[in-house]
Design goal:
Largest sheet: 8 strands, mixed
Order of helices and strands: EEHHEEEHEHEE
Shape: globular
Strand content: 25-35%
CATH topology of one domain: Aminopeptidase
Radius of gyration: 16 Å
CATH class of one domain: Alpha Beta
Number of helices: 4
Structural class: alpha+beta
């Protein structure tokens, strides 16, 4: 069961990151990482070819209030995004009674391999279970994305099923692996 979420009053801090709502100030940093080929495509959207594309996406994030900016303390810049969305598991028999959210994420290619995404995802998991009162958190990644698979595994998610994701902005279907993390585990 989906529960309402508004990230405008949320700020989560880890040793290296501040996870907070996007603001207009993030536009340049967002464009910097979103315009790199291969970054958005791993999440189902084409890399940005203009600052206007980034501005439109930024406005959507700010209006929907469900995607955080990942702010790197050391570099004082937004280096990625992390969202809490309605979960695909709400359609799965036997899981509809659970209060759930689905985690999505994107990280600047310049920051890959530093353990920042598992750090961010773990912080959001902790927030979801302790503050939001979630029963479960889900996550998925494209079969062709081994980097995301490593993040999912490091954060303790358990494989649940396979599925297909239609990336509207790419007009392409992706095979995906779907995982769940239950609060009681």
């Amino acid at each position: 069961m989906d529960i309402p979420f508004d990230n405008t009053v949320v700020s989560i801090e880890t040793s290296r990151l501040i996870i907070r709502p996007f603001t207009e100030v993030d536009l340049g940093d967002f464009f910097e990482y979103a315009s790199v080929p291969g970054v958005g495509e791993m999440a189902g959207w084409p890399h940005h070819t203009s600052i206007e594309t980034t501005r439109t996406r930024l406005q959507t994030y700010m209006e929907n209030k469900d995607v955080f900016a990942m702010h790197c303390k050391a570099d004082d810049k937004a280096i990625g995004s992390l969202g809490l969305h309605e979960s695909w598991i709400n359609e799965e028999k036997g899981y509809q009674h659970l209060k759930t959210k689905d985690v999505s994420f994107v990280l600047s290619k310049a920051y890959w391999g530093q353990g920042l995404m598992p750090e961010a995802v773990q912080a959001v998991i902790d927030y979801g279970f302790t503050i939001m009162g979630l029963d479960a958190i889900t996550i998925a990644h494209f079969v062709s994305n081994p980097q995301s698979k490593r993040v999912v595994e490091k954060c303790g998610f358990k494989f649940l099923s396979t599925g297909t994701y239609y990336a509207k902005l790419l007009d392409k279907h992706f095979d995906e692996l779907r995982y769940i993390l239950l609060k009681e585990e």
